[in-house]
Every structure is written in C-alpha cells, then in structure tokens.
Amino acid sequence: MMGLFSGASFNKVIKPRGSVEGDNPDKAPSDTEPDDTSILDDNEGSIITSLISQLRVGMDLSRVTFPTFVLEPRSMLERITDFMSHPDLIFGAEGFDDPEERFIRVLQYYLAGWHIKPKGVKKPYNPILGEFFRCRYDYPNGTQGFYIAEQVSHHPPISAFFYISPANSVSIIGELRPKSKFLGNSVSTTMEGENRVTLLGKPDDGEYVITMPNMYARGILFGKMVLELGDTCIAKNEKNGLSCDLEFKTKGFFSGTYNALAGRVRRGSSDIGEVSGRWSHVMDFKNYKSGQKRILFDAVKDGQKISPKWVPPEDEQEENESQRLWRDLTTAIHQKDMEQATAAKSAVEDAQREQRRKMEESGQKHVPRFFELRGGRWMPKFEISKSPEEATWAAQEWLFPTTDLTTNSPPPQQS
User: Fold this and answer.
1) Peptide bond into 16 cis (omega under 30)
2) How many Å from the N-terminal Cα to the C-terminal Cα in the chain?
3) Is 159 in contact with 138 (CB distance < 8 Å)?
4) pLDDT band, residue 222 (cuts 50/70/90)
5) Confidence at 119, pLDDT banded by 50, 70, 90
6) Position 304 confidence tier, pLDDT thresholds 50, 70, 90
7) Cβ contacts of residue 286 below 8 Å, gap of 6+?
8) I want to staple 115 with a disulfide (CB 3.0 to 4.6 A). Which of 188, 261, 299, 326 is the partner?
9) What is the pLDDT of residues 334-367, one digit of tens each?
C-alpha cells in the first residue's frame, strides 16, 4: 500500500490524553492488525517529538526531511507495482461481452492493490528527479508484463508510470502527485493523479480512469499511530457510461471499523450494484438486478498470491535506477543502523541538490527519459503495436535492450 509516515506511537514521549481503548497505552486500537502499529524507543520518539514541535497545522510537508527509521526500504516508484500484484483479476476482461462485467474486473484489479503494506505505517523513499524503476513479469502462461516508473518532476513531485502486458491485452498509464500536510494529531496525504486502464482487446471501451483516496496517519501526538485510507475516489468508463464512487471510510473516534469501503456502481443514472467490505480483508459486489453477491478480492485468502517480478541485478542497473541508487540506505535500514542510513540518505539527496544547482546555473532543464508531457498528461515514449508479439518485443527492447526475453534470465525477485 502507498506509504505515508511511520509505524509508531509517541506515547513513550508524549503521554496519551486519555484512551477509549483501555488503560494499556501500548494496546493497538481495536479492528487493526498487529503489524499495523509499532512502538518507538525513547531516542526515536524524542527525534520525532522535536521534529513535530517545529511544524505548524496546515504546513506543506513536501520539503520536510523525516528521520530514516520511518522509511520503508524501497522507492515510491517500486511501491506502485503493488497494483500489478494480482494480474489474474484483470487478464481476460476484454473477453466478456457485458461492459458491466469488464468494469467490475477493472475494479477488482484496483482494489486488490491496497492490502500490501510493510509492518507499521511507513513511507517509501521520495524519488529524486530522473530516478527510474523498471521490472518484468514472467507469467505462468508464458506471457510477459513490463513496468517502468520515472520521477519526472521534483517540485512538485510527480511520479509517472506505465505497465503493459500485450499478450494479455492490458495497458495502464498513470501518475501520482502526493501532497502532505500536518494536521495536528495526524498527517494527511492528498494523492492527486490517476490510473488509466486500457483493455487493448476492447479499444472501443476507451480508458477506465481511477483516482486515488487520500491517506491519514493518525495518532501522532497521542494514542496509537494508525494509517487509514479516507475520502472518495472515482472509477469511470465514459464510453459505456459506467462509474463508481468508492468511499474509503475512516474510523470514527467512538464507532466504526478500520479499512472499510463502500460504493455504488452506476450505468448512466441507474444504480446497478454496490461494493462493500474492508480493503484489508474481503470486498464484495452485490448485483441489484440478480440479487447475487460475489467476492471481488479476499486479501486474507489470496493476498499472498503475488505475481513475482524480475528486476535487473543491482550491478547491472544504471546509477539512477531505484534499487542501485538507494542500496546503501536500504542495506543500513535492514541492518537497523540508523546512523549509517542517515548518512546514505543524505549522500543521495546532497548529490541531487548539487546536480540541480549546476543545471540551474547552466540554464539546463531536465528532460525525462521514458515519459513526455502530452495534453497535460505524462505519457510513455512508447507506441503500442497492434500485434501482441511485436508489442512484447518492442517493450523488451525499450526497457531491457541487453536482456534476452526468454533465456538466461535470473530468477525473478519476489514482490
């Protein structure tokens, strides 16, 4: 799941001002999973408390540097691949004659990406300008999928991404423009941007466009810190008049449950069904016409069936490729060496600032390598052939020109 802040409470430094969860301050809130919360030691808590004391309510956090112990050890560009973890949910969608069924299959793909998250409430690395992440998926049926993401802008931060599996008739283009604010006892991240899904076997459908919910890290100053998805995102397919307003519900202080969502699927002005459940557990769709309910995704049962991805070995990656770029930081985090992690993170960020300074002095402008701005959208510099075989070969040559498509490939990395 897209990250926001950290997986920690601060009650070892700032005592909670009362609790509806009982007398034990270290007890996780009800309805949360054990891995959703963790506790800072005194030193870590003191660092966060000192940081928070310098913030103002409503402050934009895009230029605030957070300590390394709140980081998930991967870049946001890699984190986006969580949405490609269950491709079987969308593969074959173009084969259904009913446009409503095709729409539901696209919804399944989208909803299945949220359950994946690190322990606690952590945030991935903020990508630097020009950083990119690429990977390939080798599916059991002998087909491939290809993914590329690039940081195309630094201020404001914009991550552009593109996924294609020609043989399975799926293309996904999108961008993320996160904006974070300090709200007192929480941090909010407005996830601007969208996913644009195309079923290549049904070109008349046009795009399926899906926006993102917002994210909230609650309990920064008192209580337990918990990550919640909140507010409404919209999925729509204009060509067939289909839409769904999905409400990600935040838990009330005294009532409600964590990770709940609900939405109505409409065709034109008529409701055709409803989505309900919890994105961390089970989500259902009820068809109003037939009265039947079906499971869209069961994260408890099927959440571990993640499609593995192959990433080039770090020594074969380019210098600004995510895993190589951040490898010293990642190693230090895994070793729990926060001093070395801070030094590694600063080294990357200082080098980036120096590079930007030189470009500004020389009047140069950064030109993204894999994406370009067209009509206000970041689009891949890639033309999709109508032939699945030709498109697969072209994607391989574009992203992995020195790697054989079918032989001598290292074992895939697990997501």
Assistant:
1) no
2) 12
3) no
4) low
5) low
6) confident
7) 273, 274, 276, 292, 293
8) 299
9) 998 888 988 999 999 999 999 989 998 998 999 9
Contact 263, 274 (CB under 8 A): yes
pLDDT over 80 at 268, yes or no: yes
Distance CA 275, CA 247 (A): 10
The single residue listed with the structure tokens 């969860």 is 21
Tokens linked to 233: 């995102």
Give percent helix, percent strand, percent coil of the chain, each to the nearest 5.
25, 30, 40
Q: Under 8 Å CB-to-CB from 27, ≥6 apart: which residues?
A: 21, 224
Q: Retrieve residue 360's tokens.
A: 């500004």
The one-letter code for the residue type at 230 is: G
CA contacts within 13 A on the Cβ side of 395: 28
Torsion of CA 90, 95, 98, 103, to 10 degrees: 20
Cα–Cα distance for residue pair 282/279, rounded to 1 Å: 6
Q: Alpha-carbon distance 16 to 286, whole Å?
A: 41
- Which stretch of DSSP H or E encloses residue 347? helix 338-362
Residue predicted with more confidence, 30 or 107: 107
- Write down the pTM of the prediction: 0.82
How far apart (Å, rounded) are the C-alpha atoms in residues 303 and 115? Answer: 7
**Three-class SS state of 400:** coil
Torsions phi, psi for 247 (to 5 deg):
-100, 115
b/e for 229-266, b at 16 or more Cβ within 10 A? bebebebbbeebebbbebbbbbbeeeeeebbbbebbbb
DSSP string for residues in 155-216: TTTEEEEEEEEGGGTEEEEEEEEEEEEE-SSEEEEEEEEEEEEEETT-GGG-EEEEE--EEE
Contact partners, residue 410, CB within 8 Å, separation at least 6: 310, 313
Contact 29, 248 (CB under 8 A): no
Please return the burial class of 369, using the count of CB atoms within 10 Å of its CB with bins 0-12, 13-18 and 19+.
middle
Question: Are the C-beta atoms of residues 136 and 400 closer than 8 Å to each other?
Answer: yes
- Residue 293: its H or E element: strand 293-298
Q: Residue 363, Cβ neighbours under 10 Å: how many? A: 6
- Is the pLDDT at 153 greater than 60? The verdict is yes
Burial of 380 (0-12, 13-18, 19+ CB in 10 A): buried
